[in-house]
Structure formats: C-alpha cells, structure tokens
Amino acid sequence: MLIDGTLTKSEEKFGVINPSSGEVFAHAPHATQAQVDEAVAAAKKAFRSWQAVPLSERKLAMAKVKEAYDQHRDELADLLVREQGKPLASAKGEVAGAAGLMKKAIELTVPPEVYSDTATRRIEVVRKPIGVVAAITPWNFPIFCSVAKFAPAIVLGNTVVWKPSPFTPLTALRMGEILQSALPPGVLNVVTGDDKQRFNVGAHLTSHAGVSKVSFTGSVPTGKKIMSACSSDVKRVTLEMGGNDAAIVRKDVDVKAMAPKVFSGAFNNSGQICCAVKRCFVHEDIFDEFKEELVRCAEKATFGDGFEVGVEYGPLNNKMQLDKVSALVEDARAQGCEVLCGGGRREGSRGFFYEPTIVSNIKEGRRCPTQEQFGPVMPITPYKSDEEAVARANDSEYGLGGSVWTSDFATGNALASKLLAGTVWVNQHTDLTEAPFGGFKQSGLGREFGSFNVASFTEVQTLSLAKQDV
Ligand code: NAD
User: Fold this and answer.
1) Set 38, 83, 94, 240: catalytic member
2) Which residue(s) pair with 216 in the sheet?
3) Confidence of residue 347 (pLDDT cuts 50, 70, 90)
4) Measured between alpha carbons, how far is 457 from 435 in angstroms, rounded to an integer?
5) In the chain, where does the domain assigned CATH 3.40.309.10 lie?
6) 142: burial class by Cβ within 10 Å (0-12, 13-18, 19+)?
C-alpha cells in the first residue's frame, strides 16, 4: 500500500481471484486500522501545504503523474485483465480512458465569479479545496472510476486516500507504486482491504473524523451506508451508484442496424456497467423481429478469457455477482418468463462465465426487470405507445441513464428529455464524454466529470470586500 509516500505491507492478506479461472492468483494486503489512520493523518498533513501550492504547479504535478502512468499502460491493462476479467482490448481502452481523465484534470479551470465590483465593494466567489478525500471505488472499471476521482481532487488542492474494491486491488496497489514519486508524500495514499474481514476499511474511512469528503462509486446499498456515515460530521459526499437504464426502441428504427447497437449497450463489459441498458422496451409492431435480431447478436457473441484473441466478452468479475445474476434468471424462469437464449453458466469452465441471456414475457414487478442485474442479461418487453414506454421506463427507483432509439430525431429528443435520468441518449447508450455524470433518484447524489468536478471537489467561498476607507 502507499502511505505517506512509502510502500507499506500488512500482516493480514486476502486472495485476489482471476475471474476467468476462478482461482486465487495473488494476495493483497488487508490494512489494519492503524494503517488507515496513518494514511488519513498523512493526507491531512500533506493537505496543509498542498492546498497552498498554486493551481498551475499542481497541474504540473499531475502532468508528472500522467507521464509515469503512461509509461506503464500496457502493464496495467494486463493486470486489469487478470483481476477484472475484461478482454485485453477493453482493458487497454479503460487504461487509455483514464489517461484522458488525467489530461482533463490538468486542463481544469477555476475562474472566480465576480458578483459585484463597484467603487465601494467587490463580491467574489472563489473555490477552496475541501481537505482529505476518501475515494471509494468499484470493480467494474477499477482504474477509470478511480482516476476520475483522484486526478481532479488532487489538481484542485485536496489530498486523497484511495480504497479500491477488494475484487480489484492489484491495479490500485501497482498504481500507488508507479505514482509514488510523482507527488509529494501523503497527497495520494492507497489502502486495500477485504470487506469480509473484521475491519472494513471503507466503513472506517467514511466515518473517519480526518476525512472531509467521500467520493463513492458503487452499489446503492453501500452508498446509503456511506451517506449515513457521512452525516455524523456533515462530510461532503458524492455518490455514483447503480442504475436500471431503459432503452425505448420505436417502431421506425432500422431493426438490423439498431439491434446490434442496443445489444452492445447492454452487454459490453458483460453487462457490468452502471449505465448499461438493463431494461429494453420495444414497440409491439417490431417486437418479434427485434427480439430475433438480439438473439442473433447473443448467439454470435464470443466470450472467454480476456487474453484469448478475438474475445469480445469476459466473465463476470466475481462469484457473488455470478450467483446474483443466476438467481435473477432462475426467478424469472420460475415466474414463467421466456429465456430466449443463454440462461446459464458456461459449461466446462471454472471461471465466472454466464452466457449472454435475453429474457422476454416479463411479469411486471418481478426481480429481473426491477433490480439491477449488473450482468449479461437483458429483459425485453413490448409496448404500444410512446407515453406508455416513457411511463414504464420512469417507473424505477433508479435514474442513472436512459435512451430512445428512432429514425425521428425530433421525437427521439422530446421523449429522451422526459426520461428521469442523469444522462439520456438518442440512438446510443453508455457513450460517456467529459459532460457531467451522475444519477437521479437512488442512482446518485451530486455529479462528477467536466466542470462539475470543481463543484464536487471544492467548497464555495464568498469574499465580500468593502472598499471604502474606514
Ligand atoms: P459495492 O457497493 O459493493 O462496493 C463499492 C466500494 O465500496 C468497494 O470499494 C467496497 O469495498 C466499498 N465498501 C463496501 N462496504 C463499505 C462500507 N460499509 N463503507 C464504505 N465502503 C464500503 O459496489 P461494487 O459491487 O464494487 O460495484 C458495482 C456497483 O457499482 C453497481 O451497482 C454499479 O451500477 C455501480 N457503479 C456505479 C457507477 C456510477 O458512476 N454511477 C459506476 C460504476 C459502478
């Protein structure tokens, strides 16, 4: 682990499993409470001087971070395949995407807002760093989701304690080593731990008095616990949580052209994307044709070990997720839903592979369409009118993303704007840019990315200056 600029071990360890083989291939340290306290203390100490470093110099430091990171991109992609399971090309894409986030952080501007500037007074709003940021991150995009937090947080003058998911600690630990010398000690700390052990590193960090802000990406149940933990001393908190995105496919689409795109929106990263298509509503006039095309896509999909050439989809990341997805499909089957393809684990593999699965004849209110599956399973349902489709799409506790698929751009735009979700798309899904990202309803609190990083990682200070000579 990286604590106060020094690489540190722990007596306790936990196994890291390669999801393609189901076997432990490495061990990661389980931080002790004293080590987490030390990391927070180091970050707190470093904050005193880091906050006073001019923005331009902090950007230069982030440029050094990026330079060190860039030199190890292939190695990190390789490690990502082994601990996360995704195909190598996707891992390289994630690593490159994270480098892009570092570049965006270096380009951040924090212009002061002048509300009033007269002969007698000036009112200006400035942004101040918050303090120690705990970055708590998930296993689906372990590098991208983490850089999205620590790069802007550090550029904006905060210091960070990063706790990755116990399923993907190795890329974080290696990044700690790689970036160790690019920043002053304590500005970035990396601590790891297994949620199953006695001491939960994430829970300790989020209730720690030395932490001023928690930036969390993960599931809704954990996000709720964090929000509650943060209330004790009114920590700042941003929550990027799960989704149950709907795709509405209108009858005017070119079925053969659009079905593969909807399929990718649901199954990329084996469905383990917060804003993947998780419910698909298709107009009844094209329902059968669209359904057949989706099944064709599923049957053509190649999945396997991420290092195999030509593999498009990897396994689920962990056994817990595999069991959850299997249970959802079994529940759907038991309720009389039709499993059109897939519907089971890959035969003869000890890895966490689940076949791409499409389910129809959905019963309203069942677990499959109402819970986030976070796996390679898509329920599809016919609808009659645009109004009905929008109402059903919005009938969810989640509100992360949503999309409308149509050849009528104006109608698509109008319908998309009626979706209650943080990001809405027309004729695409999961396409993320530097624009703000986050959720309506239980999908999140606050926004990150783009200029919203400034809102997320700074406090607002109003300077009210009387100019007259007193
Ligand atoms: P998770 O909630 O199980 O874990 C996320 C992180 O929280 C991990 O680092 C974990 O160790 C930590 N944690 C666990 N218990 C904690 C506690 N009591 N206090 C503090 N931290 C604790 O989520 P996951 O299974 O790793 O990730 C999958 C979920 O993440 C899905 O729901 C997915 O939709 C969501 N996700 C959301 C976004 C987004 O930007 N909205 C992006 C990626 C993933």
Assistant:
1) 240
2) 136, 239
3) confident
4) 16
5) 245-435
6) buried
How many Cβ atoms from other residues are within 10 Å of residue 452's Cβ? 18
Per-residue pLDDT tens over the stretch 27-69: 999 999 999 999 999 999 999 999 999 999 999 999 999 999 9
Q: For the chain, how many residues are written?
A: 470
Structural class in CATH, domain 2-241+443-466:
alpha beta
Rounded-to-integer distance, Cα 232 and Cα 343, Å: 44
Residue whose CA is at the smallest distance from ligand 1 atom 8: 165
Rounded-to-integer distance, Cα 251 and Cα 384, Å: 10
> Cα 330 to chain center, whole Å?
27
Find out whether 143 and 179 touch, Cβ atoms under 8 Å: no
Ranges in the chain annotated CATH 3.40.605.10: 2-241+443-466
pTM of this structure: 0.97
Choose which residue among 195, 239, 317, 456 to substitute to test ligand 1 binding: the one with the highest number of ligand atoms within 8 A of its C-beta.
195
**Does 240 participate in catalysis according to the annotation?**
yes
* Structure tokens given for 311: 């593999």
Distance 21 CA to ligand 1 centre (A): 23
DSSP string, 389-409: HHHHHH-SS--SEEEEE-S-H
pLDDT digit string, tens, across residues 283-303? 999 999 999 999 999 999 998
Level-2 CATH architecture, domain 245-435: 3-Layer(aba) Sandwich (3.40)
